[in-house]
């Protein structure tokens, strides 16, 4: 059962690390540090799994998997400290909150202490730790040995400080978070850090109690397994907490991409009717939705601006009474359940017929007044318009155009 959770925690943390690989390209240090923490913890968790331990065990260095796991954990811990220190509080602020200043000082000192710690761990590992036989579990098999107790105390010093700092900072940040997703995500990460503090304190107490008082092997194994399970749970909480805000961002990006997918036919027809309105001629739907020169948000802003520009040009081809004819047709004949977007869709389709017929209007057509407050609102309206627009046959649009022109003459 414990092995299953070992693999699960390692796999989940690996997925999170791979998901955040693009952060390595970012210019800000705290995103790279966050990725480094995930990658380091993923490596440490994999080094705790039986398969990887057996693979590393082929190297002729007894308990090398334990040393590598502690190296990876130390690197991840330093990365987590860097992330916390660079994420909260403005560097340029004259007055920095005390807890932010303390976190930055700890992170600054931790790099030097980390280098010294790795050197000390290496020296202790090859000198005072009794490694005559390979260990199935490093803590259990070396229980009661003062050399291993010193070695593990040096290692646990770093997570003891890190979990306290991260737990405090993330708890404080969760209380100040403006969105529920950030509040929940930071809250889960804070809980995991306090769990890590309990785990580290329990492990330190266990190794030194075993040195002072010989423990029952069964009790000792039960405590080690319980704390190992505790650690797997806290890493799963870290993964879930870190993924919630990112998942919200992915969901928002998906909604924007889907809006672009739906608007494509309307945008394409308008850009083909008025070449030069867009920055470049429209391509296929697949090509447009896979362009990498701009984010989906930027493309949606540009498409809505392109459509608005095309609407203004359409007014000079649409007969003056075309909008009234479209509204009357929707209200009396078509009885559409969404009349306002339907009327605009008919107006667009008929006006495009006038453009195709090369018949400019002597008097520009009015347009519906729509109180948009942002791009998302305008895009949502255009999606409703597009739904009806794609259902209108060319013959219907031509007939509506002729009715508007006849009404204008009459």
TrEMBL record:
Alphabetized UniProt keyword annotations: Membrane, Transmembrane, Transmembrane helix
Keyword Metal-binding: no
Domain of life from the UniProt record: Bacteria
Sequence ranges assigned to domain DUF6545 in this UniProt record: 253-389
Signal peptide: none
TM segment ranges: 6-23, 35-56, 68-88, 109-129, 149-170, 191-213, 233-252
NCBIfam families: MAB_1171c_fam
Designated name of the protein: DUF6545 domain-containing protein
Source organism (scientific name): Streptantibioticus ferralitis
């Amino acid at each position: 059962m414990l092995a299953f959770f070992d693999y699960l925690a390692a796999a989940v943390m690996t997925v999170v690390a791979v998901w955040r690989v693009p952060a390595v390209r970012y210019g800000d240090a705290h995103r790279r540090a966050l990725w480094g923490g995930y990658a380091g913890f993923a490596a440490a968790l994999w080094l705790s799994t039986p398969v990887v331990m057996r693979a590393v065990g082929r190297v002729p260095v007894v308990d090398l998997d334990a040393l590598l796991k502690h190296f990876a954990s130390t690197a991840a811990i330093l990365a987590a400290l860097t992330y916390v220190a660079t994420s909260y509080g403005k560097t340029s602020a004259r007055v920095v909150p005390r807890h932010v200043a303390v976190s930055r000082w700890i992170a600054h000192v931790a790099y030097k202490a980390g280098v010294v710690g790795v050197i000390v761990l290496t020296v202790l590992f090859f000198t005072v730790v009794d490694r005559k036989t390979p260990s199935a579990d490093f803590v259990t098999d070396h229980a009661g040995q003062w050399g291993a107790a010193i070695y593990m105390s040096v290692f646990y010093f770093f997570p003891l400080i890190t979990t306290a700092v991260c737990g405090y900072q993330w708890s404080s940040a969760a209380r100040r978070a403006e969105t529920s997703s950030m509040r929940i995500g930071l809250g889960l990460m804070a809980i995991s850090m306090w769990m890590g503090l309990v785990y580290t304190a329990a492990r330190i107490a266990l190794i030194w109690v075993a040195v002072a008082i010989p423990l029952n092997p069964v009790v000792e194994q039960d405590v080690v397994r319980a704390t190992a399970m505790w650690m797997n749970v806290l890493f799963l909480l870290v993964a879930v907490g870190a993924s919630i805000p990112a998942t919200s961002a992915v969901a928002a990006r998906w909604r924007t991409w889907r809006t672009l997918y739906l608007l494509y036919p309307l945008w394409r027809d308008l850009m083909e009717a008025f070449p030069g309105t867009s920055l470049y001629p429209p391509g296929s739907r697949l090509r447009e939705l896979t362009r990498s020169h701009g984010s989906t948000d930027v493309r949606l802003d540009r498409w809505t601006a392109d459509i608005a520009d095309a609407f203004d040009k359409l007014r000079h081809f649409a007969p003056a009474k075309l909008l009234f004819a479209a509204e009357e047709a929707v209200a009396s004949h078509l009885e559409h359940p969404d009349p306002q977007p339907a009327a605009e869709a008919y107006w667009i389709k008929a006006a495009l017929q006038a453009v195709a017929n090369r018949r400019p209007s002597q008097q520009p057509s009015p347009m519906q007044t729509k109180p948009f407050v942002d791009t998302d609102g305008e895009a949502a309206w255009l999606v409703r318009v597009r739904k009806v627009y794609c259902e209108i046959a060319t013959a219907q649009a031509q007939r509506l155009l002729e009715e508007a022109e006849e009404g204008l003459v009459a």
